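Quick log. Single chain, no ligands specified.
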Amino acid sequence: MKIIFIGPPGSGKGTQAKRLASRFAIPHISTGDMLREAIAEGTELGRQAAPIMASGALVSDDLMIGIINDRLAKADAQGGFILDGFPRTLVQAEKLDGIVGNGSDPLRVLQLLVPDDAIVRRISLRRTCAQCGAIYHLENDPPKTDSVCDRCGAAVIARPDDNEEAVRKRLEAFHRQTLPVATYYKTKRILREVDGIGPVDEVFERIEQSLA
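-> predicted structure:
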């Protein structure tokens, strides 16, 4: 199963994609996680991406296409995958068609629908484990111990780009560049819209129903 999640930052793509990856035993490929890891490790990719992400802008098409092409070529992605954060532009969507081809398992595209104001509130209360990347929400899904990851015991922190100004810029970029991607997949009749508001379990149930 080849699945793409489309939705604004903070819509719950990461949380839902991880659950779905576990459900179908396929890799969850998050471009955001890959970029943040590269920044933390100080790689060349990380040095290029750091100022772009800090400003709330999107990383270039060429850079992202290269990253995804290499990742999808790995053995664990041959039986299917879940893409979270890619494609974000029409150019990326068209290039992805060439990378994955048609095959016996066509792409399935899920768009999580969440209003902008709800996104800003969600992200301002979002926290991430500095070590394992586990995602928490101070209101809906806080760690059991304040600022400590339930999984690995490392510090739970706010991402540097999770401030309101950067979030607003990311939302502007999303509406300008990524919503045309949804239209592209809607034209191909492979897009399913899912209400992203509500408890995590309820949203996941809607996602499963949309894939049935």
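The chain has a mean pLDDT of 88.
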